[in-house]
């Protein structure tokens, strides 16, 4: 009995270790199927787009700061004449940056969809060739439903869900990095607290990712019986009324609803906990350092407002980054399952006419 319990504990620990690991091989398989040209184009377009977005916000901060300083300086010097501020240079630069940002957003969207289409076509054609050339013992040992799921559900996940999740993950990651870079540029003192904050975020997301994935699967698994029971109740409403089973079906519907609501409540609470906890730490540190620097006249009020604005958005960016990472981990399971079928050895036709 002691040996059996120790084996169960070892199996449980190995399962938990596998759940905490990111399927990097499946991610590498997906990115390698995109090709040599599409992947650099996708990364370059994302970097340029977020650089332009930061430049737009920085231009607005300088524009506001200079416009306010032109109006305040004559009042402080008790001058009767008020200088007029020329908005045309800033408006031209702002318009050019906005147009460039729109073009880069379009290029990024096209690159993401093009990458997803190419990966799907390549994996589907490779899987089809492997299945057609597979030996007969493969079909005797593999259920037909499993093969159909690879061609239907998994290919649908790779075709529709992974490109969108990949785009959201890269966007939220770059937004978070750009926000931290802006805060560090505005207040260099923030860099002192950035290292322990990054370590804390790493360990928090490591445990949150496992819990979020399990809660998402629990939410999906409890939603299906609810929808099935509701559709069956509507279709058989006349039979239910004939046998006077309204109370029984109503009670069953309430039980399914409660189960789904509990899973949704825990998932929402976990997401809010991640957002509020990390975001509060970032906002507190950024606010203290920004106000301290502003009191000693080291930075302008416009840059302080820019840093605090990005600090308030870091919590949302971190939340979406971790949630998209958990979704990507679930969706990469489709690539992993298809990659397992791609290792099937083909039938040996040597010596046959």
UniProtKB/TrEMBL annotation:
GO MF entries: ABC-type transporter activity; ATP binding
Pfam families: ABC_membrane
Matching InterPro entries: ABC1_TM_dom (IPR011527), ABC1_TM_sf (IPR036640), ABC_transporter_C-like (IPR050173)
Residues in ABC transmembrane type-1 domain copies: 41-329
Keywords: ATP-binding, Membrane, Nucleotide-binding, Transmembrane, Transmembrane helix, Transport
Any one of the GO CC terms: membrane
Membrane-spanning intervals of the chain: 30-48, 93-112, 179-205, 277-296, 303-322
Record-linked PROSITE patterns: ABC_TM1F
Domain of life: Eukaryota
Name of the protein in question: ABCC8 protein
Organism phylogeny: Eukaryota, Metazoa, Chordata, Craniata, Vertebrata
Gene that specifies this protein: Abcc8_1
